[in-house]
Amino acid sequence: MKKELRYKRVLLKLSGEALAAGGQGGIEPETLRSTAEEIAAVRETGVEIGLVVGGGNIFRGLKGASQGMDRAQSDYMGMLATVINALAIQDALERCDVPTRVMTAIEIRQVAEPYIRRRAMRHLKRGHVVVFAAGTGNPYFSTDTAASLRAMEIRADALFKATKVDGIYTKDPERFPDAQLLEKVSYDSFLTSRLKVMDSTAVALCRENGLPIRVFKMAPGNIRRVLQGEKLGTTVSELDV
C-alpha cells in the first residue's frame, strides 16, 4: 500500500560538502549520481521539490574573509560556487530523466534562468525540480538563509535540511559521546541554545512565518521517509513537544 505524503512541496537544502567525497573539496561523481538518484526517486512520489545547495566544497565565503579577503567579495565568490554545484546537480538529474531548472539570484543568462518567483512556481507545478543558486544574491547571508527565503516564497510545506549527522544534538556528537539527539525543538530553544547545525537568521525567518524545519542525515531513502511523516531526525517548529 502506497503511503500518503505528509508534505506536497518541500525545499531541500544540501551542503556543498554533501557532493564531495570524504570531506575533500570538489565534486565526486559517484556522490553526485547517488544524490540525483535519491531526488529522482522522491520526485516519483509526486512531491514538488525545490533545491538549494551550498558551495563549501568549492569556496566558502566566511573562510575567505577570515583569511583577509573583503567579506562582500568573498561572499560573491561563494555564490558563484553554488552555481557550479547547481549546474552539476542539474546535469545529474537530467541523466535520471528528471526535468530540472536552475534559477540564479545573480543573473548568468547563458547558463541559468534569473530567479523569478512566479516562474519558479510554474516550473514546480509542471513537475520540474528547481535548483535555486547564488544564495539570496546578497553578501552576508548564508545559503541556509537563502533556503528559508526561497521556501517561504514558493510556499513550501517544510524546509528539509540534509546533513552528515542524524539530526540536532544537545552538543557536538563528534566531540561529546554523551550528546543526545533531539526529536523536537522549538524555534526559540534552537536560538537561545545557539545550536550550530543551521544559521540562526534562517531559523528566525522560519519562526516568523511558521515554516517547520526537518533536519536529518542524508542517506538513501531518508528523504522519502521524512516525506511520509516518519519520526526521523529533528523537527524544528513552534513547540518542543
What can you see in these coordinates?
By secondary structure, the chain is α/β, with parallel strands linked by helices. It has one domain: Acetylglutamate kinase-like (Carbamate kinase), CATH 3.40.1160. It contains 8 helices and 11 strands. β1 (9-14), α1 and β2 (48-53) form a beta-alpha-beta unit. The longest helix is centred in the middle third of the chain and has 25 residues, at 71-95. The protein is globular, with a radius of gyration of 17 Å. The model has no long low-confidence stretch (mean pLDDT 91).
Structural descriptors:
241 residues; alpha/beta; Carbamate kinase; nine-stranded mixed beta sheet; 8 helices; 11 strands; globular
* Strand-residue proportion: 15-25%
In DSSP terms (H or I, runs of 4 or more residues), the helix count works out at 8
Shape: globular
Instruction: Give the beta-strand count.
Output: 11
CATH homologous superfamily placement: Acetylglutamate kinase-like
Briefly say what this structure is.
The protein is an alpha/beta fold and 241 residues long.
Task: Please outline the helices and strands.
Blueprint lengths: L8 E6 L14 H15 L4 E6 L7 H6 L4 H25 L4 E5 L8 E2 L2 H9 L3 E5 L9 H11 L4 E6 L4 E2 L11 E2 L1 E3 H7 L6 H10 L3 E5 L4 H6 L6 E4 L4
Parallel strand pairs: 1-2, 1-6, 2-5, 3-4, 3-5, 6-10, 9-11
Antiparallel strand pairs: 7-8, 10-11
Helix pairs in contact: 1-3, 5-7, 6-7
